[in-house]
Design brief:
By secondary structure, this protein is an alpha/beta fold. It folds into two domains: 92 residues, no CATH class; 191 residues, 3-Layer(aba) Sandwich (Rossmann fold). The chain is 29% helix and 25% strand. It has eight helices and 13 strands. Helix 5 links the parallel strand 8 and strand 9. Helix 2 packs parallel to helix 3.
């Protein structure tokens, strides 16, 4: 029995310039909709307090580029952050990534990686921040609830030319020089409702404050209508498209790297803890995996040894040759 990690990386496409989401589980409509109005009032008030200067944001010594969204989970913020880090590094820039470290136990300012050495791993560190640190040699990754404090700590040690802020559109405490906001091509605004009645973290009009919009997982054969909708609604925002494509398969144990073609026809049981597991399933189907079953876990799930043992038993019972998951889940 082998465990394969399906490794993905953000790719840019067309850098020249719905479907509706369900209600969040656990909230019936008659409860969720009224609560969403209170949530929206709080979200608008908080942003307005910072924009008018009644609450102060703080600056870092180098430019800050934020990669964020206005929906809950699943738009590709972390892969795009990695893509930008590689891009800036190739241009000779010193880059530091700042992350909240969601899912990790550490809340204080933490140097997860100095670019040469990894100091922590999940569950002490959040799996997305750990994935960034592992994927990006030469790029320090700092985490903390205060990204300003994390940035100052990184500045004292590394003197970066640029900071990349992962999931930063709602982190008003830190001033940004560029706000990139990601939208999923299949459902850019979900069902148009705010939490908990829908996936929106802020009202759609907030997108007019972004410096640029990026429509991720874009397929021109089925997402052109959503692209045109966004162009009409937000004509002043530059709108880019991007795809997220698998790049390789990593085997465990042994660490062998195989081509994607090795998954074609493979009898496998898949598992993942993702905000939108359907995207992972569609990817596996596109690669020709003979999927015998799929086990979904909550987003940012910390897997216990007994859960992995149970997955191995289930895979053997179903006659699978391998278990398949994402590199984020295997972090």
């Amino acid at each position: 029995m082998q465990l394969f990690q399906n490794v993905t990386r953000q790719k840019s496409a067309d850098l020249s310039l719905a479907d509706t989401g369900p209600l969040l589980p656990g909230f019936p409509t008659f409860v969720a909709v009224p609560l969403s109005y209170f949530y929206g009032f709080g979200a608008r008030l908080r942003r307005r307090l910072y924009r008018r200067g009644w609450l102060k944001d703080r600056f870092l010594p180098s430019p800050v580029v934020s990669v964020g969204n206005i929906t809950v989970g699943g738009t590709g913020k972390t892969p795009l952050t990695a893509y930008l880090a590689r891009l800036f590094k190739e241009q000779g820039k010193r880059v530091v990534i700042l992350s909240r470290g969601y899912g990790g136990r550490r809340r204080e300012v933490t140097c997860l990686s100095d670019g040469e050495r990894l100091y922590l791993k999940p569950p002490e560190a959040g799996e997305e921040a750990f994935w960034l640190a592992r994927q990006l040699p030469g790029v320090p990754v700092y985490t903390g609830s205060s990204r300003h404090a994390a940035g100052l700590a990184a500045w004292r040690k590394h003197r970066p030319d640029i900071f990349l802020l992962d999931d930063g559109f709602q982190h008003f405490q830190l001033a940004r020089d560029l706000d990139l906001v990601l939208l999923d091509a299949a459902q850019p605004l979900g069902n148009g409702r705010l939490l908990p009645a829908g996936p929106l973290r802020e009202p759609p009009a907030t997108l007019r404050l972004a410096d640029a919009l990026v429509l991720t997982r874009y397929d021109p054969s089925c997402h052109q209508e959503n692209l045109e909708f966004l162009r009409r609604r937000f004509p002043d925002q530059p709108l880019f498209t991007a795809t997220i494509e698998p790049q390789a398969v990593h085997c465990f144990p042994g660490g062998e790297v195989l081509p994607l073609s090795s998954l074609s026809g493979l009898a496998a049981l898949a598992f993942a803890g993702l905000a939108r597991p359907r995207v992972f399933l569609d990817t596996l189907a596109g690669l020709g995996v003979n999927l015998r079953g799929f086990k979904a876990f909550p987003d940012h799930h910390v897997f216990r040894p007994e859960e992995l043992s149970g997955l191995i038993r289930l895979a053997r019972f179903q006659g699978c040759e391998a278990l398949v998951t994402t590199s984020k889940d295997w972090a």
